[in-house]
Amino acid sequence: MKIEMKIVVSFSNNLVSKGLTSLLTLDEGLRAFNVSSASLDRAALQEIQPDVVLTDFSTLLNLPPASSAPARVLLLDTGCSKDEINYAFMFKDISGVVDVNADEQLLTKAIKTVVGGRLWISRNSVRELLAELRESAKSRDLSEREKRLLNEAEWGYIADSLDIGKTFYSYLGKIRKTMGL
């Protein structure tokens, strides 16, 4: 028997919300619910009890705190800035970011990954973050551990896996803070 995952799809653009809900409903193991961004509150989440909330940045800003809604949050990057993505990870406790150009197989894989308790970050997001850190690291004093982490990520030991743990992203955040970024 296949376990069914419940996905709440809520975007500031209702047409996008409905389209993604229809697309996700085609997958046998997923049950998608379209919830308008105006209706996405604690009561709606408690009623549906989703495993994942798939959303955009503007809807994410109004999402109830993670403590009141235990679902994992997956952000669809519809043109977010680096600062918005960093904010989402650090203060909205999201479990992943999916590139807007991802196909349905990659989106489904991202959903299953975050339901499994792992973090999902698109390769492009990781590459951009690492490029920024490497450039800034040239003029900063980093610890040996920070240098090793950046070197391993640069060579793909971490970035290519896509099963990047929250500790990795948190540590990169600390490196950015150390460097004043």
How would the global form be characterised? Answer: elongated
N-to-C CA distance? 48 Å
- Which CATH C-level class of the largest domain is it? Alpha Beta
- On the 0 to 100 scale, the average pLDDT is 80
CATH topology group of the largest domain: Rossmann fold
Number of helices: 8
Question: Which sequence of strands runs across the widest sheet?
Answer: 2-1-3-4-5-6
CATH homologous superfamily descriptor of the largest domain: Response regulator
Could you list the spans in which at least 5 consecutive residues all have pLDDT below 50? 157-163
Largest sheet: 6 strands, parallel
Q: How many domain modules?
A: 2
Helix content: 40-55%
- List how many beta strands DSSP finds: 6
Succession of helices and strands: EHEHEHEHEHEHHH
- Report the C-alpha radius of gyration, rounded: 17 Å
| Structural classification | alpha/beta
* Shape-level CATH architecture of the largest domain: 3-Layer(aba) Sandwich
Q: In percent terms, what proportion of residues is strand?
A: 5-15%
In short:
The chain is of the alpha/beta class.
Describe the protein.
The protein has helices spanning 14-25, 42-48, 57-60, 82-91, 104-115, 123-137, 144-154, 166-178; strands at residues 5-10, 30-34, 52-55, 72-77, 96-99, 120-121. It folds into two domains: 5-121, 3-Layer(aba) Sandwich (Rossmann fold); 124-178, no CATH class. With 181 residues, it is an alpha/beta fold. The longest helix is centred in the C-terminal third of the chain and has 15 residues, at 123-137. Residues 157-163 have low confidence and may be disordered.
